[in-house]
């Protein structure tokens, strides 16, 4: 067994870690998002947990079953980094930059050691301080310095074993996918389906129930032995000596064994031939041909085919469409947990569905990529270009949105007349949204690819286009709600007064005025904007000049 050389692995780890920091510092949006994550999910829990450990640690130890709780908690917590590191290994960290050159100059075990140390440094940069601070607060609160040592040692044991197991799982997944032509071809589709399945599972509290059951089942698992290691320094709590010895053996024997397995798996991944799905030409299915023959012909049909082909080959390019799904978490969770669909869910589904259908056409020029010069110089005219994009997204999205909205409406307490109108409005918006999105995306295009993983880059709409389109749809929908829903204008008027009051202003808008403004906004979105957007994109396409 060739073990990683510490010096070479540390050198590679330093480079990888610095590259991660540099990549984040160059992306302002990602940096701000990461800062918000640290504040909400690391900083605040650390402060609250440290305060609780310092002020009430001794009382909690005397009243709660600390040993059983530590066993269940650490066995369950061990799964967290395993899942996280496996997911990161699949997406990024199982491969190194300039892999071919690196593997011909540095032994594979040293490369793997560098990747593991870099990943350990990334994770510890986030969790090490909270663990040390809370362990110190507990030790001070109960007056036992040994508690600090035992908590930190138990954390390191959990982390070391979870890091290796998670990385092995991620590498094995990449081996299976990379050596299967079928999985390689459809890995983007699999990723999208997995994301949707995860969202549904979280919304239905399936994950929560599974974790609750696991916490009881894992109490006797080997990873629960780390709980005995954690409490060894806490006075008044007697750990099981055999289990504590087992925890030490897990680290002493398990870490070298897991490292050896990881080296073998990584070598298999890096040196084995990868599946080549090939460069197949687009084969139009009978269904596609039937649908297209009825709704489009000539150059318009060619545009539709290209959009569908592009999406089939790389559905991951529409990943941004899934972002607002998280706003549906609360009503979906309520529907799954109570068995009754809230009245707000059909409305939100209709609004999100219409937004998503339009958002799929939000970057028409950027999506063309290197083929943009060819597209601009073919026989496709501007109006055909616009119609092709609208047909491509509406043909797929409109029926789906109407059906989902209708089903949610039937299951909700909404009157049939209301959810039928809602389904009809969603159908209209599925035609209006793409036109509006095409105009905004044409005005604010993005041609450069954005990295979604270390080995995958896709072109997605610009942040400006995304924000402008979202705001436009939201304003139009809000305007319609204010104009049509009884009492909607009065509620908005009250909200405006409250917000102005917080700002030290005195603003009062009469509900009739808001109703008129809301109607104007809705009419502008549905009636005025579409033809203007249609003509703008068509003219822009025909007069576009390549730089």
Automatic annotation (TrEMBL):
Keyword Flavoprotein carried by entry: no
Residues spanning the membrane: 31-54, 66-86, 123-142, 148-177, 189-212, 244-261, 318-337, 343-362, 390-411, 417-444, 465-485, 516-537
Sorted UniProt keywords: Membrane, Transmembrane, Transmembrane helix
Name this protein carries in UniProt: ABC-2 type transport system permease protein
Species for this entry: Halococcus dombrowskii
